[in-house]
Amino acid sequence: MPEPFVKHTGTAVALLRDHIDTDQIIPSREMKTVSRKGLADGLFAGWRYAEPGGRHPNPDFALNAQKAHGASVLVTGKNFGCGSSREHAVWALAEYGFRAIIAESFNSIFHGNCLRNGILPITLDDQHALEGPTWTGGETVTIDLPTQTVAISCLPEWVGRFAIDDYPKRLLLEGLDPIGLTLQSSDLLDAFEARDREARPWVYADYSAAKAD
Predict the structure, then answer these.
(1) What radius of gyration do the chain's Cα atoms show?
(2) Residue 150: CA count within 13 A, CB half-sphere
(3) Which residues is 151 bridged to in the sheet?
(4) Which residues contact 119 (CB under 8 A, 6 or more apart)?
(5) pTM of this prediction?
(6) DSSP character for 212?
(7) DSSP 114-179
(8) Given the DSSP bridges, would you call strands 149-152 and 7-15 parallel, antiparallel or unpaired?
(9) N or C: less crowded end of the chain, CB within 10 Å?
(10) Residue 135 near residue 16 (C-beta atoms within 8 A)
């Protein structure tokens, strides 16, 4: 289960590029597992490392800058997460430590994958304000989910606002995915099944004895 997201303060790293696709977020050659673990090293591998398949850091890539170490907020451009629907892209971002992504716009499937995996995708009402400062790395971002606001250290007089639907907001605040939310109603589900067993016993017929014969 993801960690609850209520109020988060963290270091930002800026990749101010448009149309960053899921193969750039995690190249297919780095997808060596079907689980959510072991993917962080492959995050942005095509840019992060000096050679394909290697692990020698590219010193010119923003994520490798000393000030970006431990970054948990990504600031980027429009149509982030386009391309394939691979959920590995979100898993890699989450395992690396990103809790929020601020972008001009998102691919819709990627946006949904973020919300189900504990990452808050943010499109600000005043996104163009982020074009003003020079992002040098190490900026501090504070995100308050209950009030749906963003504050950034390089814009001291500015407060950004964002919209989010009630359902994904609840998932993030409580640290739940859709299955976890359903399991919170397990008593109601058990009670329904008990009533249904009485009303329609044939639906729950035990065929194990017949199979044994």
Answers:
(1) 21
(2) 30
(3) 142
(4) 2, 90, 93, 94, 98, 99, 100, 101
(5) 0.85
(6) H
(7) HHHTT-EEE-BTTGGGGGSS---S--EEEEETTTTEEEETTSTT--EEB---HHHHHHHHHT--HH
(8) unpaired
(9) C
(10) yes
